């Protein structure tokens, strides 16, 4: 009698072990991704002073024209300072994006661990009572893409349409790689979709991608459109700085000073990083 009962419970034990091993491998894979993201985040935080703030356009090239003597050296120093400030702000944006990805992966691991614990408890209960384990949940925390079919044994169904949030993240990643055309396409795709708060970020990404392609006249307009969409948002000061940088890259110092005057008038007490960039641009443009 005891041998018969043990023989009936043995398959249940094997099934519990297989399920635990399979889900543990998925958890380990996610934890490895989290460790990679933490390492990248640490590297970027060491490269960005303070690790906080928002992004701005990729560093524009210095405007054309020959310079000589001490005036040329001073202008070159101003150009380098402005480019370094732009790069710092771009890295700060990447830090924020990586933190968001890290939070998502952490939540996935926690959900998967909870699912695994429940499955093990169900199987242990079934083995102790000589019954069968409870059915596996219809949807796990991390779906198995290989299990998706059309219901007739055919090929898997096509992937779901990408959301604007995913498209925007891909666009920012393309911007970081220097793929400005890809970033521009992603921004336009979000802007062509339904209205929403992400459209401000998409408009800002469009301006950054145009500046990266040295289309400074178009980028100045795109930055100003970002400001007009939400003049009191957190993007507004960065957008006005982007207008200034684009105008300076075109050699239009007078208009750049006007943009800085608008920034000072509407944001008299900006964040320290904005104030630092404003001062550098003001010096470069020779504003009074």
Automatic annotation (TrEMBL):
**Coiled-coil intervals:** 88-122
**Leader sequence segment:** 1-16
Composition-biased stretches (Gly residues):
66-75
**InterPro entries the UniProt entry points to:** TPR-like_helical_dom_sf
Q: Which organism is it from?
A: Gluconacetobacter liquefaciens (Acetobacter liquefaciens)
Q: Where is this region: Disordered?
A: 46-78, 127-163
Print the keywords alphabetically.
Coiled coil, Signal
Spell out the protein name for this chain. Answer: TolA-binding protein
SUPFAM superfamilies (alphabetical): TPR-like (SSF48452)
């Amino acid at each position: 009698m005891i041998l018969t009962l043990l023989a009936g419970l043995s398959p249940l034990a094997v099934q519990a072990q297989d399920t635990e091993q399979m889900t543990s491998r998925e958890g380990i894979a996610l934890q490895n991704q989290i460790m990679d993201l933490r390492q990248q985040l640490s590297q970027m935080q060491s490269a960005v002073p303070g690790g906080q703030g928002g992004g701005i356009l990729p560093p524009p090239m210095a405007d054309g024209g020959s310079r000589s003597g001490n005036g040329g050296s001073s202008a070159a120093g101003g150009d380098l300072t402005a480019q370094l400030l732009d790069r710092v702000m771009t890295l700060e944006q990447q830090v924020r994006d990586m933190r968001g990805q890290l939070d998502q992966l952490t939540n996935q691991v926690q959900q998967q661990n909870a699912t695994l614990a429940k499955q093990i408890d169900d199987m242990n209960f079934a083995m102790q009572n000589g019954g069968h384990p409870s059915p596996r949940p219809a949807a796990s925390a991390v779906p198995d893409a290989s299990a998706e079919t059309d219901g007739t044994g055919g090929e898997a169904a096509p992937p779901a349409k990408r959301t604007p949030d995913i498209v925007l993240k891909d666009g920012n990643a393309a911007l970081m790689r220097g793929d400005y055309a890809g970033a521009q396409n992603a921004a336009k795709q979000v802007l062509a979709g339904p209205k929403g708060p992400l459209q401000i970020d998409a408009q800002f990404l469009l301006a950054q991608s145009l500046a990266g392609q040295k289309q400074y006249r178009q980028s100045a307009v795109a930055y100003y459109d970002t400001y007009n969409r939400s003049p009191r948002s957190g993007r507004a000061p960065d957008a006005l700085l982007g207008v200034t940088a684009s105008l300076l890259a075109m050699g239009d110092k007078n208009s750049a000073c006007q943009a800085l005057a608008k920034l000072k008038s509407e944001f008299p007490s900006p964040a320290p990083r904005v104030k630092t960039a404003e001062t550098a641009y003001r010096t470069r443009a020779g504003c009074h």
